[in-house]
Amino acid sequence: MASELGDFLRARRDRAQPSDLGLMSGGTRRVAGLRRDELALLAGVSSDYYTRIEQGRVRPSQQVLAALARVLRLDGTEREHLLRLAQRSAHMIIRRRPREVVAAGTLDLLSRLDDLPAIVLGRALDALAWTPLGAALLALSDDGERNMARRIFLLPETRQLYPNWDAVAAELVAHLRRLSAARETHGELAELIDELTVASGEFAALWSRHDVTAGVTRRKTFRHRLAGTFELEPDVLTLTRDEQTLCIYRAVPDSPGVDALALLNTLVASGLAGTNQRPADIGTDVTG
């Protein structure tokens, strides 16, 4: 699949001097310039992911584009051109990519959980739907970042939500590692992993450990700006047909979590929680 972005990157690969980048040059090389796998390695992404960038099959993040521009030693004009081509390619990909939807039955179940924080996660850990209390707990909104991995590693306010952020981050990466093997043909998941590997040194370090876990399994401690510090127990239901999961948080009886959820419920009912208070619509488009 040809793309103008891919043509530009290939032309700049051909122009690059491997010796300037510490790579072997001379008669033993079969191609001029950089090979795809060499550029991918130097930019900190997988060879498969970079190949899909050239083919116009994924939307590279700003961090990935910056890494490619750095390795290819693009000047200011070329960098601007690269960003414009990537933006145009992204619009084409969004039009091609099918929307990830939440089944009506799942939304009906979610509507019966209004007194609990609950969230439906998609194949690549995008928040597709949530209860009002889920929005209040996790600061979710229709126009905010919905991907839970990006939120954990790229949003400072999410880091502040978890006093034991290191453990939460490690568990999430181990879960992604397991998903990446189970869903190896799912391009959005591979795209997310490569993006975070470039954007977050902490993610890259955790990813290199190859730890694996079955998902959100441990009791979570929250430090909420309105409800204080408390623990909640996660229950995770796998929605096999759609490769989605429903995560429900409940308070341990007689714990501070009971009072915290009661307070959040009151704030939601009074409109003071400051977050989106409705589940996402059926057919929510999370592609862009």
UniProtKB/TrEMBL annotation:
Pfam families: HTH_31 (PF13560), MLTR_LBD (PF17765). GO terms for molecular function: DNA binding. Residues 29-79 form the HTH cro/C1-type domain. InterPro entries: Cro/C1-type_HTH, Lambda_DNA-bd_dom_sf, MLTR_LBD. Gene3D superfamilies: 3.30.450.180, lambda repressor-like DNA-binding domains. This is Transcriptional regulator with XRE-family HTH domain.
